[in-house]
Design goal:
This protein is of the alpha+beta class and 77 residues long. The protein is built from two helices and six strands. A hairpin with a 2-residue loop joins strand 4 and strand 5. The longest helix has 9 residues. The chain is globular.
């Protein structure tokens, strides 16, 4: 099942399918290692929903909601 990173629940994990977006935002995500086939585990969400924390390539990464909405993940069931 493919979900956007913002739609994942804490504890869910999967693999990055696509990094959407344009310009600086897409480049920033790619520079941080959010690339196709990277394993990702959703950690937690701030009380107001922004930012979200994920574990990616062995490190914890906090993303703004707008950035996380540009990442599609194939969730393991």
């Amino acid at each position: 099942m493919i979900k956007k990173l913002t739609e994942m629940k804490p504890g869910e994990s999967g693999v990055v399918c696509a990094t959407l977006g344009e310009g600086w935002m897409r480049k920033r995500l790619l520079d941080m290692g959010v690339t196709k086939s990277a394993p990702v585990k959703f950690g937690k969400r701030a009380p107001l929903g922004d930012p979200v924390e994920v574990t990616l390539r062995g490190y914890e990464l906090s993303l703004r909601k707008a950035e996380a909405d540009c990442v599609e993940v194939e969730v393991e069931e």
